[in-house]
Amino acid sequence: MFLADVKNGSPVVVGVKQSQKAIARGQAVGALIALDADEHVTGPIKALCEAAGVRLETVSTMQELGKACGIHVGASVAAVLKTR
């Protein structure tokens, strides 16, 4: 569901640090992680989502997630932001 939202232009932040900030600040409605990303990268995001009650979805590859977010490189994590 979130991947389709991202492809349709929902506000998103890409990357571990920006996603962590958005989730911790209560600005994210959901997060996407790539299944081929390293666990030491995605593990903290998974824990933060669970603690904050943010829904987490997976994407097959980092390349697929990056493309959906409109960047030309792979992305391990992205957070979908709340709309005002």
Could you give a short description of this structure?
The protein is an alpha+beta fold. It is 43% helix and 24% strand.
Tell me what you see in this structure.
With 84 residues, the protein is α+β, with helices and mostly antiparallel strands. It has a single domain, classed as 60s Ribosomal Protein L30, Chain: A (2-Layer Sandwich), CATH 3.30.1330. It has a four-stranded mixed β-sheet with strand order 1-4-2-3.
Provide the descriptors you would attach to this structure in a database record.
84 residues, 60s Ribosomal Protein L30, Chain: A
Topology:
Blueprint: H1 2-7, E1 12-14, H2 16-24, E2 28-34, H3 39-52, E3 55-59, H4 62-68, E4 77-81
Parallel strand pairs: 2-3
Antiparallel strand pairs: 1-4, 2-4
Gyration radius from CA atoms, angstroms: 11 Å
Termini Cα gap? 19 Å
CATH superfamily: Ribosomal protein L30/S12
Quaternary class = single chain
Helix content: 40-55%
Fold-level CATH name = 60s Ribosomal Protein L30, Chain: A
Low-confidence region ranges? none
- Strand arrangement, major sheet: 1-4-2-3
What characterizes the major β-sheet? 4 strands, mixed
Summed up, the helix count is: 4
Q: In CATH's first tier, which class applies?
A: Alpha Beta
Tally of domains: 1
The CATH level-2 architecture is identified as 2-Layer Sandwich
Mean of all residue-level pLDDT scores: 94
Structural class: alpha+beta
